[in-house]
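Example record

One chain of 238 residues, shown exactly as stored in the release files.
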Amino acid sequence: MSSTKKREQFAVFKSIIALVLIAGCLWAAQWQYDRGVARHHRNFIIEKHSTKSPVSLASVQTKPENHEWQPVITRGVFDPETQILLRNHYFEGKYGFELLTKFDDEGGRSFWVDCGWVEAGKNAQTRPTLPQLPVGNVEIVGRLRLDSSLPRGSFFAIPTNSDTGLVSKANAQGGATSEDFYLDLISGSTPTLSPAAPAELPELSDGPHMAYALQWIFFGGLIGYGRFLIRREVLTRK
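Predicted structure tokens for this chain:
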């Protein structure tokens, strides 16, 4: 095989590699663009729903996915014996936990209520000081959240007394169930129901996805310019 033929085959091979790389850059640009659009839509929904006036939980419970982040009102009773602490949550630079408490409302629904952040104890053996929830029937206002957006991370449950195991295990053994949504507590019928450090809305930023999409397009353009346009100019000169 002549050297000219080999050079032509090698040039074709490099062109194929360049096309593959360009296709990869365009795919990455489209992926980042789709992520940016999805995040922008999510932020729009959060901002729109979270600023609405509170409505009754019963009026939106049939399709909670259409009302996530919207403030709702309901009445019922807290179960302070059924609580979960979510690890790895910070407030103003301090380590602590997010406190979830079971709530049984007058409509027969049972669900978790995020009662806000609590500071960790002075060491791993010290239990954190938990807010005293009112006893009896109360009215609460909270943001409706879906189970799919429950705060992630490992968690442990607070034992109801020294003789029982973790509440999560007790719930499982007792067949306890809850709705597929929960509430971020905002306020209630008593001042003690207003958390000192309530669950916060996520940061409403579109992030760098659109910039990354343009960056990938730029990379693809550089590959195309370097492989095809410059090569064409060299061949033309020859």
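Notes: DSSP finds three helices and seven strands in the chain.
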